Amino acid sequence: FFFFFFFLMIRRPPRSTLSSSSAASDVYKRQGINAEYGGFKKMDMPDLNAEHSMGTTIMAVSYTGDGGGVVIGADSRTSTGTYIANRASDKLTPISDNVYVCRSGSAADTQALARMVTHYIRQHELEIGEKPEVHTVAKLFNLMNYNNKNNLMAGLIVAGWDRHSRGTVYGIPLGGGLFQQPYTLGGSGSTYIYGYCDAHFRQDMSRAECEEFVKNGLALAMSRDGSSGGVVRLCTIDQEGVDRKYFAGDDIPKFAGFV
């Protein structure tokens, strides 16, 4: 009997241990804390396998001074929910030597569209023996976007220079639609700068003035929109060719009221 009682005492945990652990579990439950994590709250991590989305700011502006041309620009932030998947992505994609596309929406969808249109435009260049018209590229983007509107999430801006229309800008919203405009904006950050653009845009801007206009607009959007950020990329297209510029850190304009 003595040995049996001694065996039971060994197998049974101390009374104080049982009471303290159960008390801690009760406290954890009341505070919504998982006891399996040692009293620390389990953080909800973003789904890193989710679709990469360019919650972004893209912009294209035409100008008639200095011979005419277009300036396109974009920020560089690519996000997956609240997680920044790429802080230095390039959303200005060349389709030909004289036409670029600014991409917003699903990164995968817009990349696939750009590659497919580039393939067809290269064949078109061989057929006509010269650089394509901006309207031709924009119309092809719109055709593919509209015909697949139930499967794609792509907001695009097509801009460039050709000898027929000179500097030209086309906006293609989600689901398709082709709209030629003096300037156009896209992405989540665009809603913050429509007032700035309406107040400061002039059709007769010089090349330098247009580049400054686009750079300031993107900087303002990046300072307000949480889905826009990173660096500023600009691309000027005119009869001389393509000139790309990059602004990061202290080179990005700062405005009163923003840190």
Poorly predicted ranges: 4-8, 15-21
Bin the strand percentage. 25-35%
What oligomeric state best describes the polypeptide chains here? single chain
State the major sheet: 6 strands, antiparallel
Structural class: alpha+beta
> Mean pLDDT, rounded to whole units?
85
What general form does the structure show?
Answer: globular
How many E-type strands?
Answer: 13
Number of helices: 6
Would you write up a description of this structure?
The longest helix is centred in the middle third of the chain and has 22 residues, at about 105-130. The chain starts with a helix and ends in a 12-residue tail after the last strand. It has six helices and 13 strands. Strands 1, 6, 7, 8, 9 and 10 form a six-stranded antiparallel sheet that branches. With about 260 residues, it is of the alpha+beta class. About 35% of the residues are buried. The protein has helices spanning about 1-10, 15-30, 105-130, 135-145, 195-200, 205-225, and strands spanning about 55, 60-65, 70-75, 80, 85, 90-95, 100-105, 155-160, 165-170, 180, 185, 230-240, 240-245.
Primary descriptors:
alpha+beta; 259 residues; 5-stranded antiparallel sheet; 6 helices; 6-stranded antiparallel sheet
Summarize the structure.
The protein has 259 residues and is of the alpha+beta class. The protein contains six helices and 13 strands.
Note the topology.
Blueprint: H1 2-11, H2 15-30, E1 53-54, E2 58-63, E3 69-74, E4 78-80, E5 83-86, E6 92-94, E7 99-106, H3 107-128, H4 134-147, E8 154-162, E9 166-172, E10 179-180, E11 183-186, H5 194-200, H6 207-224, E12 232-238, E13 241-247
Antiparallel strand pairs: 1-7, 2-3, 2-11, 3-12, 4-5, 6-7, 7-8, 8-9, 9-10, 12-13
Helix pairs in contact: 3-4
